[in-house]
TrEMBL record:
It comes from Menidia menidia (Atlantic silverside). One of its GO terms (biological process) is intracellular protein localization. It comes from the Eukaryota. One of its GO terms (cellular component) is ciliary basal body. InterPro entries: Beta-prop_BBS7 (IPR056332), WD40_repeat_dom_sf (IPR036322). Residues 18-267 form the BBS7 beta-propeller domain. This is (Atlantic silverside) hypothetical protein.
């Protein structure tokens, strides 16, 4: 029921900006928190198959990451979001309890929260804060796409793991690189395999590969990898077409140079809700009834105009004793094409 229904309308989102809050108690309502590029944090629950709003913040700066946190040993139900170089914290009821400025020169693009520890990354920079105070700093050799952090009873310290564009997972110790792990593609996302006492990390790459790696403070071991067998690339560029009616089409060119339709899909994600449109388009929809009435009048206006021009043409030659009614059909054809020059030429040559 949850998957099949359109529960809540939000704006454009970044990866890792939707989280499922823990449900406490047998009858507790499962809640979802999601943040978008309009800077709005929305939380809703599900009751009898319907979305029930919990809270919704005011618009603000674009939100690019979200994580859940809380004190060690307690339910991880506090919501943390980052916008620019700022991190904010909210309770599950929507009350803001934290505003932290990381003072980075670039915007935060990855974040992980664990107890009182906050780990954030900009493009190449990693920072670790504890109780909002600087702890560690690291400059990566390539762009950082994501971050996670291992913490369990078997580890003497938190172990941050960076997913970097150069096909490497960098495992840190404080402000230094402990070791790195090569993966089969540029890693774009990391996730702890087991939230409680995690020592294993799942990664996903930009070319569709997935893997599981067991990581400790000094070494790592690959448990398994899944290749992207569904990728059907043939090295030939396709033509992607987006039409006004919401249809997306993919055409490929065969050996003869002729395009053929390979895929077609009609997008209906926003059907019934126009909140995603810009204000100018929404105003057109709001005034659609008036616009439709005005449009319905246009054919009558055109018919009267056509009649006036036709009468003018007939009257022009009537006084000369010429009957030009046989040419009226040609005149109407020109009028239907809205070609002013052809109309002037028609009158001149008649």
């Amino acid at each position: 029921m949850f998957i099949s229904a359109l529960c809540s309308q939000v704006g454009v989102t970044s990866q890792k900006t939707m989280r499922l809050l823990p449900a406490l108690g047998k009858k507790a309502t499962q809640k979802v928190a999601i943040a978008d590029h309009d800077g709005i944090l929305t939380c809703f629950g599900m009751k009898k198959g319907e979305a029930v709003p919990v809270f919704k913040t005011l618009p603000g700066q674009k939100i690019v990451r979200m994580d859940l946190g809380g004190a060690a040993g307690t339910s991880q139900e506090k919501i943390f979001v980052c916008s620019g170089s700022q991190v904010r914290g909210f309770t599950k009821k929507g009350k803001q309890f934290l505003t932290f400025e990381a003072n980075l020169t670039e915007s935060i693009n990855a974040m992980h929260v664990s107890g009182s520890d906050l780990f954030v990354c900009a493009s190449y920079i990693y920072n670790h804060y504890c109780d909002c105070k600087d702890q560690d700093y690291f400059l990566s050799g390539d762009k950082i796409n994501d971050i996670t952090c291992l913490s369990s009873e078997k580890l003497s310290r938190p172990v941050p793991v960076l997913a970097c564009q150069d096909r490497v997972l960098r495992v840190l110790q404080g402000s230094k690189l402990a070791y790195d792990i090569e993966v089969p593609g540029p890693p774009s996302v990391l996730e702890l395999y087991n939230k409680e006492g995690a020592e294993e990390v799942i990664y996903g790459t930009t070319d569709g590969k997935i893997g599981l790696i067991q990581i400790d403070e000094s070494s790592a071991a690959t448990k398994w990898e899944i290749d992207n067998d569904k990728r059907k690339g043939d090295g030939v560029q396709d033509v992607l077409v987006g039409r006004d009616d919401g249809t997306v089409e993919v055409y490929s060119v065969d050996g003869s140079g002729e395009p053929s339709l390979r895929f077609e899909h009609e997008l209906q994600v926003h059907e019934g809700n126009a909140d995603f449109l810009i204000p100018e388009y929404r105003s057109i929809l709001d005034e659609s009834a008036d616009l439709l009435e005005e449009y319905k009048k246009q054919p009558a206006h055109l018919e009267r105009l056509y009649g006036m021009i036709t009468d003018l043409f007939i009257d022009k030659f009537k006084f000369k004793g010429q009957n030009v009614k046989s040419k009226v059909s040609s005149l109407l054809e020109i009028l239907n094409n809205y070609d002013l020059n052809s109309l002037l030429d028609f009158f001149s040559e008649a």
